[in-house]
Automatic annotation (TrEMBL):
Keywords: Acyltransferase, Transferase. Its EC number is 2.3.3.16. It comes from the Bacteria. GO terms for biological process: carbohydrate metabolic process; tricarboxylic acid cycle. The keyword Ion transport does not apply. GO terms for cellular component: cytosol. Belongs to the citrate synthase family. This is citrate synthase (unknown stereospecificity). Coiled coil: none annotated. GO terms for molecular function: citrate synthase activity. Pathway: Carbohydrate metabolism; tricarboxylic acid cycle; isocitrate from oxaloacetate: step 1/2. It holds the Pfam family Citrate_synt. InterPro entries: Citrate_synth-like_lrg_a-sub, Citrate_synth-like_sm_a-sub, Citrate_synthase, Citrate_synthase_sf. It comes from Achromobacter agilis. The lineage of its organism: Bacteria, Pseudomonadati, Pseudomonadota, Betaproteobacteria, Burkholderiales.
Length: 254
């Protein structure tokens, strides 16, 4: 017989990681608690809960992004399918939008591991980060976690994320390195290349000892809230037909 260590149930009981859903969890634990229990196998402490809640809140929505547009256009074709529309928005989470935290964390993890000096040595850290940026520039590769098409000068979320991380005791080697990376990129490219929210979250995630996959999962869970909101708004104030009209040239008389 197949079974899962995550949870199970019979006619009288449902359990998650050994805890009874009815007796131990419902009305006794909040969603972040149960999320951590389900995914990580244990309840978070106060600082972990605060950080993971922040990851979810930060990811909730960012306006009419590609994921939101995918959700709205899918709903236009299948208005009865909220789940299909939300899934469409999540399917586009990748290396450029929405899913970047996983790639930023992997990149940062490797770059920080390659730096053999102390992260307290600002000059050595800056020199190493500048070498990484120069190498990526020469290879014409995008560095995940820095720069933003909208927040060109500075991402207002980044400082907040790092400040909360410091308050919770999670401001470590990866947080210091990612700041050095953004500063190095600004020098190499000769223009502001700010640390974005994804880069900040990736650094904190690693300093918490969590995996890149977990970070991507938190982004997806958080964004579901925003995509549901786009489904509701699209039903009440539709724009998908107008988007299609623009794409098909109808508004230009073609």
């Amino acid at each position: 017989m197949f079974k899962s260590d995550i949870g199970g149930g019979d006619a009288d009981h449902i359990s998650i990681r050994g805890y009874d859903l009815v007796e131990d969890l419902i009305d006794k634990r909040d969603f972040v608690d149960v999320l951590c229990l389900t995914v990580l196998g244990s309840f978070p402490d106060a600082n972990q809960r605060r950080m993971i809640n922040m990851f979810l809140v930060t990811a909730a929505d960012h306006g009419l992004t590609p994921s939101a547009l995918a959700t709205r256009l899918t709903l236009h074709g299948a208005p009865e399918s909220m789940q299909g529309a939300v899934a469409a928005g999540l399917l586009g989470a990748g290396s450029r939008y929405l899913g970047v935290v996983e790639y930023a964390a992997r990149f940062l993890q490797q770059a920080a591991a390659d730096f053999e000096g102390s992260d307290e040595d600002a000059a050595a850290l800056a020199a190493h980060a500048e070498g990484v940026v120069a190498s990526e520039r020469e290879a014409r590769r995008r560095i995940p976690g820095i720069g933003h098409p909208i927040h060109v000068e500075a991402d207002p979320r980044s400082n907040k994320i790092l400040a909360v991380a410091a308050d919770c005791g999670y401001y470590g080697r990866h947080c210091r390195y990612v700041l050095a990376l953004a500063e190095a990129a600004s020098r190499v490219f000769g223009k502001p290349v700010p640390l974005n929210a994804t880069g900040a979250k990736a650094a904190v995630l690693l300093d918490m000892g969590l995996s890149p996959e977990f970070g991507k999962g938190m982004t997806l869970i958080g964004r579901v809230a925003g995509l549901i909101a786009h489904v509701i708004e699209e039903r009440e104030q539709p724009i998908s037909q107008a988007l299609w009209d623009v794409a098909s040239g109808k508004q230009n008389g073609r």
